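Collaborator request, handled under Task 6.
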Amino acid sequence: MAADATSSELSRLMMPTCCRCVELRRGCVAIGVWLLIVYGAAGLALTAAALYCQRRGWREATALAASAPLPLLAAAFHVLLVVGAARRRPPLLLAWLVGCGALFTAQSAALAVGVFLLAAGSLWAVLASMTALATLQTLCWYWFWAVRCLYLELVTVAGARARWRAADGVTLSPELATEPRDKSPVRNSKSV
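Structure tokens returned to the collaborator:
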């Protein structure tokens, strides 16, 4: 009885699709590709700006050069998301969840401090742009939730497979336990 209650509670917290229109795994791959493009472009733009400022002899070059690797590091985490979702690898998704959870938390904290300081300084035009950034940050947290749901789904399926195989006396490595067992093409019922 308790196991049924736990599984029903878990199913209420899970989302079957991403953005209500795409299968969860494909949606997570799309999220990873999108974030990879955005953060990769931001890293390249910061690097180019740092080089430009350095060539001009401006003081901002040091700050830009110090911040340029951060989006590129985030882009590396997004590669983990793309590969982990495409190949159904929970450890890669867990690494993305930990890394981007820390990144999104830092971004949210910086936005909250920025909005508070701008509101105290009555800089309403900049405050409006910070509010738009906060909206985008909310979207990032939604995507984080989608990837978390995919991770939980993969871990739950892998655990069920491992229990089933253990009952039959078959033991497999964790990598094989997460692989889909049947790799045959799906037959179309209309063509038969």
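The cover message to the collaborator said: "The chain has seven helices and two strands. Strands lie at 17-18, 22-23. Please let us know whether this matches your experimental observations."
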